[in-house]
């Protein structure tokens, strides 16, 4: 087949431009991205071979190799992993599948105007393209395990790439960067220096579980075999979660996080858990510092990987954490599971369910601790993940108290400081038994609601709930620490202290006085309403519509109607 030339997708082209003009000042990370891809490819091959013994693939010495050619100024990262077919190269390397990329590029542009672009870049699958930060041309040669022909992909990172079928390609993938001309002023980015490569691998990829090898320069070692020295292995390959806490630096944890999550930013929180006893496992979990753009879409991939005795089993293991903790990334390594375990089996497994319960509690208690000890970090957490976490109030009754305890809400008490329920309860007025809230679309619209008048008048604090999920959980949960959660827009609300005889008498008198008017109004409105009654909840507005205590709120009614119920 002749060489074919293809155009990059628009989004891909925009990303490439970003890479070539390198908005990211730390270019070294391109090597981490290539090594990370190679490592994934080796994981995938090992797994595929395990599932399909007949697969014609060599898994005897899975490893990653880095080659430097000083004369040609090239750097090659090679793996003997799963490889890609012709079609896959075009699909995976030529395009950006992530649907959020357009949004990302838009935000990136805005952030750039404000000077904060760097942090945004890592969120999307720009991994492979980062090679263009260091190279003016990239070549990828690959053969998928089990297939006979290979594929060569080349690009100068501009508008097009080429694809051709090639023979005699070893299984796996090699990516060759033709490095940009050396900058005599800046030796820091000399990627033809073995010293530099060793440093980068040590820094970013030490924990990779496959050996990363590099040929030693002749003469680098003394002794008889100085002519052809053994390649050196650059990484220690130690699983971070199996090492003791004191042994591992925060930086090392963070690099593992970046490898797993494909995020370039530091995580907000690192969580470790070692379970001993009959069912042993180790977990190393991370809370990201930003919610990904696709967190609420069906395409969102969870971030917890399952290992069995240090061997990677699967990505995206949904059985390990409940859906409302889907933003948590990390690794869980179990000692006693079959390497052949499937997703279906996991969902049923009693041990996995025990793990899920324990991990869930651990994450929630970590958030609780963050809340008491690091208010600012907790603030970030809640801003990014509060909405997702609240789903748990509806779906996980066992932990709803723990979730409520770490939740915070906008309140009439302060303009921009959210409050926790505990703080609300502490501020409750004498004689106030319930926690009052109002739901709606925006703070502004509900703050000005007539339902709020009497509360404002009497200085009673009201929680302002504006997430769609708020409509649902307030009904499921019902109370917090023995205090009822009550909507200001539902049922009869008597804000005057009960047993106040004068007030009671006053009201009886008013009822008599207005009986005629109320009756007439009831007749006029007829079927549209249930009843007309005098209210103590209004101070300025003459009238408002109130739901029965057990009715659906208007927003929920709309939601159900939209769902066709
Ligand atoms: P990501 O790793 O986040 O998916 P990348 O841009 O780094 O994004 O890679 C895109 C895709 O190309 C990968 O998901 C993978 O399917 C494929 N790929 C990249 N490098 C390799 C490799 N060395 N071996 C096999 N597939 C690869
Ligand atoms: Mg990648």
TrEMBL record:
What does this chain do? Answer: Molecular chaperone. Has ATPase activity.
Q: Which keywords does UniProt give here?
A: ATP-binding, Chaperone, Cytoplasm, Nucleotide-binding, Stress response
Would the keyword rRNA-binding turn up in this protein's UniProt record? no
The Gene Ontology CC terms held by the record are: cytoplasm
User: Segment A: which positions?
Assistant: 1-343
Q: Gene encoding it?
A: htpG
The record's subcellular locations are: Cytoplasm
Write down the species: Streptomyces chartreusis
Q: Which InterPro entries match?
A: HATPase_C_sf, HATPase_dom, Heat_shock_protein_90_CS, HSP90_C, Hsp90_fam, Hsp90_N, Ribosomal_Su5_D2-typ_SF
Q: Gene3D superfamilies recorded for this chain?
A: 3.30.230.80, 3.40.50.11260, Heat shock protein 90, C-terminal domain (1.20.120.790), Histidine kinase-like ATPase, C-terminal domain (3.30.565.10)
Q: At which positions is ATP bound?
A: 33, 37, 79, 84, 99-100, 123-128, 173, 343
* Protein family membership: Belongs to the heat shock protein 90 family.
- The name this protein carries in UniProt is Chaperone protein HtpG
Q: Which residues form the Histidine kinase/HSP90-like ATPase domain?
A: 26-183
Q: How does it assemble?
A: Homodimer.
Please give the chief subcellular localization of this protein. Answer: cytoplasm
MF (Gene Ontology): ATP binding; ATP hydrolysis activity; ATP-dependent protein folding chaperone; unfolded protein binding
- Pfam family, any one: HSP90
